[in-house]
Specification:
alpha+beta; 52% helix; 16% strand; single chain; disordered N terminus
Length: 231
């Protein structure tokens, strides 16, 4: 059996194609072990700031990394077998192009998910806690509440880092919350998860304080503070 395995050689183009298919599957499965962390990075780096990991499209990061790993390997093998540069260069260009297309598709789909807040007439559920008290949200309040949440402007990078350091020390362990959940559209739902302390307004985009995005107040705090108690 061992001797037979040693005699196995890849000679035909079809065999090479099958070999690279198996390589792609192996690389994809290996990378997919860390899919959660990859998807979180994709969300934080390449999607709108008001999209969280919990509503983001999945799988794009794993696919992009797979292409970026397999393409250079394929190019190296082609260079070794053909001793020519044309096919390897085209293979690398194809890998970069496919990766760019996947990244573009991820960004487009992410934006479409966020756009649910603008195109859907009414959320499925709205919950507001302010000063530790659940607030009563009237139907007439919802459009303005959504508008204020979606128009929040991020603070500067320096201020972001300052507040993230404070959040890391547990400063924001207790905070007031706004949860606006929209119905599923084209297979995706959307949640606006705004949190507030006495000092700042922020959104937790994924696991860990490094994913927090902090915003300046645009009148949101005054608006929710004027809502009557629901208790």
């Amino acid at each position: 059996m061992i001797e037979k395995i040693k005699k196995l050689k890849i000679t035909r183009k079809r065999d090479w194609a099958i070999a690279f298919l198996f390589l792609t599957l192996i690389v994809y499965c290996f990378i997919n072990i860390k899919a959660v962390y990859i998807d979180e990075k994709m969300v934080f780096l390449f999607s709108p700031d008001k999209l969280t990991y919990f509503n983001a499209p999945e799988g794009y990061g794993t696919a992009i990394l797979t292409v970026l790993i397999v393409a250079p390997i394929a190019a190296a093998v082609l260079l070794w077998k053909t001793k020519k540069w044309k096919a390897p260069v085209l293979t690398l260009l194809a890998g970069v192009t496919i990766s760019a297309m996947l990244l573009g598709a991820f960004q487009i789909q992410s934006q479409k998910i966020v756009d649910i807040a603008y195109t859907t007439m009414s959320p499925e559920r709205v919950t507001v806690f302010y000063n530790g008290i659940r607030r009563s949200v009237g139907e007439e309040d919802i459009p303005e509440l959504v508008k204020l949440c979606m128009e929040l402007e991020p603070l500067s990078n320096e201020e972001q880092e300052k507040y993230r350091e404070a959040a890391g020390s547990g400063w924001y362990a207790k905070s007031d919350k706004i949860r606006i959940i929209f119905p599923r559209v084209n297979g995706h739902s959307y949640l606006i998860p705004v949190q507030m302390t006495d000092d700042v307004i922020y959104i937790c985009r994924m696991h860990g304080v490094k994913s927090y995005v902090f915003y300046s107040d645009n009148g949101l705090r005054d608006f929710v503070s004027a809502m009557p108690s629901a208790e």
